[in-house]
Amino acid sequence: AQSVAQPEDQVNVAEGNPLTVKCTYSVSGNPYLFWYVQYPNRGLQFLLKYITGDNLVKGSYGFEAEFNKSQTSFHLKKPSALVSDSALYFCAVRGRSNDYKLSFGAGTTVTVRA
Amino acid sequence: DTGVSQDPRHKITKRGQNVTFRCDPISEHNRLYWYRQTLGQGPEFLTYFQNEAQLEKSRLLSDRFSAERPKGSFSTLEIQRTEQGDSAMYLCASSLGLREGIYNEQFFGPGTRLTVL
Question: For residue B67, which residues of chain A lie inside 8 Å, CB to CB?
């Protein structure tokens, strides 16, 4: 079975400060990893994915994520947070078999204060 | 708007009634997924179609739930004899599957929020 853990329910940062949202995963074999963001009353928006290659993945809106196989982690980062980054963030994983469903974490609410 | 669309956006029903939701995926996407999201949780997989074939169903999808994608385009999710525990956001997603080993991200619709009274 595959699963994702997001250990922090909430992350609070000041605008302009670095933002990190943590994610660890469990899956058989090598993973596909994803980050999505959800704004109120909106669907999930894709931010970035790790499939293979460089461990540092760059995505939308200045976000990046680092894949660490030994620590089974895929933390989301942004060097300088904006108030508009305040939202609910989900990490998701799937294995490399013919199993296309995503398994999501419970989500982390990010609040960026001005 | 060329994204995934879902209808209705909100549905309030009484326990025991049947409801049906529709999802229109991005036009060229051959894969379509249904997820359920409850408050404070991430989306949970319900079922998945490749073209018109339903290839996987979660054990969350009880006998009261049925999904179809008759022409490989839009999909419907029906819940019969709704229960209060069915109250949730139902999300639809689609992706373009080119060939085995190539995986493109899923794009999500805005969801249908179901409230069962």
Answer: none
